[in-house]
Amino acid sequence: MEQFVYTPENLRKLQLIALDMLRELDYLCRKNEIQYELDGGTLLGAVRHKGFIPWDDDIDVRMLREDYDRFCEVCKTQLDCKKYFLQTYRTDPGYRWGYARILRNGTDFRRKNQEMLTMRRGIFIDIFPCDGMPDRQPLKAIFNFRCFVIRKILYSPVGAVHDRNCMKRLIYKMLKHIPPETAFKEMERLVAKYRGKNTKLVRTIGWGGKEENKGFLREWMLLSCDIQFEGLLVKAPVDANGFLKFMFGDDYMVPPPESERKPKHTATYIKYTSQ
């Protein structure tokens, strides 16, 4: 399918819909004393641009598992269900990821190469739960490998068709026969194993990357402060500098070359809703 072409106008429209969802999340979290923080490029945008990175197309937040579970529970009765939908593998049988999203009802966002997935679609913000993990090897490597296998099982319908490596496509085709429920049960076992343990490091089990494998400092998630994001006061780590250096390196305040300033989510179709 043809790739959706972003323009400054339609990208800004998408950003404003995501900002509306962040406003709702912030309201619910403050009302119910739930801790959250901006994550990744969203935090970088807040620090470097006081809002979105101009070419960014989504919003990411992180929560420790206890806050994440409370947030999901609160959403059952307090989220404005006429406007929003909390998407998890428990609320949407077709959803295959190990973290939550808030979707804007009445919108559509179709990721390129994910057309075969049966999950509900819409413009979204991501909410990543952070679980305890081992601080030392070899337990840390074993834990990360289990996270890796979970993620690959869940991604297998996409990888079986679109991975560029033919051997990887073959492996994904075999993994595709494992029900996603098996992966989610394994994820829940890992969550339970470290629930309530004050580990130094945390990570999102259902997400990958070198930063997740290294582990984030728990203290980054415990100490927060207000920060401006598009005129909205939201939550960020007190040590945002340390967090951003960990994710992006010492020169995170320097924007990338023009050639790299592109939205990260490649779409084939986006439907917007009126504000």
Write the layout of secondary structure elements.
Blueprint (H helix, E strand, L loop, with lengths): L7 H24 L5 E2 L1 H10 L10 E5 H14 L5 E4 L12 E5 L3 E4 L12 E9 L6 H24 L3 H10 L4 H15 L6 E3 L6 H5 L1 E2 H5 L1 E6 L2 E6 L2 H9 L18 E5 L4
Parallel strand pairs: 2-6
Antiparallel strand pairs: 1-2, 3-4, 4-6, 5-11, 6-7, 7-8, 9-10
Helix pairs in contact: 4-5, 4-6
CATH architecture: 2-Layer Sandwich
Uncertain segments are none
Structure classification = alpha+beta
Order of helical and strand elements: HEHEHEEEEHHHEHEHEEHE
User: Which CATH class is shown?
Assistant: Alpha Beta
Please state roughly what percent of the residues sit in beta strands, choosing from under 5%, 5-15%, 15-25%, 25-35%, 35-45% or over 45%. Answer: 15-25%
Tell me the distance between the termini.
Answer: 28 Å
Can you tell me the overall shape? globular
Number of strands: 11
Question: What's the average pLDDT?
Answer: 95
Tally the helices: 9
Rg, rounded, reads 18 Å
CATH topology: Beta Polymerase, domain 2
Helix content: 40-55%
Major sheet summary line: 7 strands, mixed
Number of domains: 1
